[in-house]
Amino acid sequence: MEQITQRITQNLEHLKQYTATPGNGCTRLPFSKEARSAVNYLRDLMIEAGLRVKEDEAGNIFGVLDGEDPSLPCVMSGSHYDSVVHGGDYDGIAGVIVALETARLLKKCGQKFKRNFVVAGFNDEEGMRFGTGYFGSGAMLGLRTPEYCRKFRDKDGISIYDAMKSYGLDPEKVEKAKWKDGSIGHFIETHIEQGPVLDTHNIEIGLVTGIVGLHRYMFTVHGRADHAGTTPMDMRLDAVDVASKVISKIADWAREKGDGTVATVGYMNVLPGGINIVAEKVEFSVDIRSLNMANIEDIAAKIQAALTEETAKIGSTFDKETKLVIQPVALSEKMLTILEKSTQAHQFSYKRLPSGAGHDSLEIGQKIPTVMIFVPSKDGRSHTPVEHTDYPYFAKAAMLQKELAEQLLSE
Ligand code: HGY
Ligand code: MN
Ligand code: MN
Ligand 1: which of 80, 124, 126 to mutate, judged by most atoms within 8 Å of the beta carbon? Predict the structure, then answer.
């Protein structure tokens, strides 16, 4: 356990430097130089671990521990290497390192398994830059096309397509990232919980039963720029007045569901943004999540109706860009049961729980038997520089992953 903890610590401590905001959290956006540096380091680690390395046309990196029969569906484990802005040092990337450690432990068994074990480092799970999400894991499933890459832009108007080209990838070939149907038999992901449950109850391991569904939108409310002093209140087309009337209701619409449904306005932009100018435009994001898709659809419909009503009152309009719609997913009971037995044998404290965060497992679990292991987030904090998890928890997850993988690889 000591040695495992030490290797994981060393790798994650090294990765902390690959951020665009040193001293203010991890900012490792897709197709950035920080992403490139992190992938280069992952490549070195995979080679050092004796894995066969390949990078695909979507910016994903894979390390393969070859089995006897590579034609059999593989066992894959991993997570994402990108981050949010000013995020933590463990979200995603820790799962890639735990998967790599799993490969090291499997290799140390000294036997050749029937199937390949594949370590995956996915690109752009967060959707932080383009508002979308699960770009790399979606590409692996054949869900990303050149048209998709052209459609979504970041705040500077740069499309995924152009960002890929500047990174040295050919977006016209993004569909080549698709793995053959049936070639991935099982997917395992370790991730920090990013919530308070494990830490509050002093529990070491979370066995994730399911992951929430999500809707993500970017709304634009149109108004008219006017002088803030001379324009009478009843003559204004004030985009902030309209947007704020609707935004102020969204959190309560989620609370009213009373079942863990959440809704967040994380991004707002007022244009032209002058202290003495009536707002011409307001852009704002909405992220709605629930294990019950009907709740999400209901809140989305309420937002649409409220914006229609409020803009009509002042004779203006609004636009809605749908960034992401994904169903909730139930994770593999077969793999959960195997993990549960291992966890009990090691006498690790554990709890079954759902995930309020989306993950690559949310995308992959739509099609492939998938399981997630959570480790505690200190004070339940994440997507912030204070995000922290004690390293021994990652070692325990790696030990559990290795035992699960051993069983699945020998089937
Ligand atoms: O937003 C999320 O749930 C995850 O961190 N991508
Ligand atoms: Mn995240
Ligand atoms: Mn994550």
Answer: 126
Structure confidence by residue, pLDDT tens digits, 341-397: 999 999 999 999 999 999 999 999 999 999 999 999 999 999 999 999 999 999 999
Residue 212 neighbours by CB under 8 Å, 6+ apart: 260, 289, 290, 291, 328, 354, 355, 356, 357, 358, 362
User: What is each CA distance from 180 to 252, 264, 406, in whole angstroms?
Assistant: 44, 36, 23
Of 387, 335, 394, nearest to 361 by C-alpha is 335
Other C-beta atoms within 10 Å of 345: how many? Answer: 10
Output the CA torsion sign for 194, 200, 203, 204: positive
- Global model pTM greater than 0.70: yes
Cβ of 125 less than 6 Å from ligand 1:
yes
CA dist 112 and 131 (Å) reads 42
Helical H runs in 256-332?
Answer: 293-313
- State the ligand closest to the CA atom of 92: 3
State whether the beta carbon of 87 lies less than 6 angstroms from ligand 1. no
